[in-house]
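Good morning C.,

I know you're traveling, so I'll keep this short. The sequence:
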Amino acid sequence: MAAESISGYIKHHLQNLTYGQLPSGEWGFAHSAEQAKEMGFWAVHVDTLGWSVFLGFLFIMLFRAAAKRATSGQPGALQNLVEVMVEFVDKSVKDTFHGRNAVIAPLALTIFVWIFLMNLMDFVPVDWLPKLAATISGNDHLFFRVVPTTDPNATLGMGISVFALIIYYSIKVKGIGGFLGELTLHPFNSKNVVVQALLVPVNFLLEFTTFVAKPFSLGLRLFGNMYAGELIFILIAVIFSAGLLLGVFGLALNWAWAVFHILIVTLQAFIFMMLTIVYLSLAHEDSH
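The tokens, ready to paste straight into the viewer:
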């Protein structure tokens, strides 16, 4: 495979199916990365949104089916799996969250399973679903990505949603005064009113920067790890086209990376869930 075709193959697999306003003023799908960029903020990554909703719906249906078939007798495989997940998340919440809020445990379970399912799409061979989508649409050059967490719009969207919950519960538990006090009266404080007034801007700069960094750290950590994993799978797929000998090597390499990547897929879902629990636990702590 020529260098240009390899580069084009990689770029094609890393481009989302984007819908927005074209340079002509009409609304439609972008046919190149340049067109997608020109669409600006209101462009929608249809593949990311579609797979996110589908996998969220799959999560709901699987857990609903397990709940409807739940029995106190001999449980089935699905019930066993769901019970293990629920117990694992419930223990994680009890060990980490020190407030009282009935929303946290269901939220943590949703985050863990949903992100895990989205990450798990990375194990589908990189060409299968894009080629299926191209065949169905009749467009051989259709952009189509299947791992939502490799799109920073999805991961940052989840991070910002958690950030909104942090602000909401911080104000609800501590009040506006307590919330602003945490941003301006810590970490440096003094009993002298004048000195404390001088420390307020310094405290605010430090605390506000740390506070605002939370959604970005959540979103970018997940995106970076999953994007790197997707890119490696794409590069391994390139090796398959380089002849029989390299194809056998690529197969072994693909298996080895898949075994290692299952740890990353699970760990990233767990880290996102645990940081969410920790951040919301801090939001529920009334420091005064």
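Safe travels,
E.
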